[in-house]
Amino acid sequence: MPVEVPLPIRFDQDHLHASYKAEHAHRFWRMLVTADAIFKEFRAGFIGKASPVHFFWGSFDLAVSRFSGRRAPPRPAADRVTREAYSHEVSSAGFWPGGGDVRGAAFYSYTVPEPPGFAAAPIGVEKTFYHPNLHEFILLYDDVRASGSPRDCLLQFLQRTYEAGASLGHWDREALERPTQLQQAA
Question: How high is the mean pLDDT of the chain?
Answer without folding.
Answer: 92
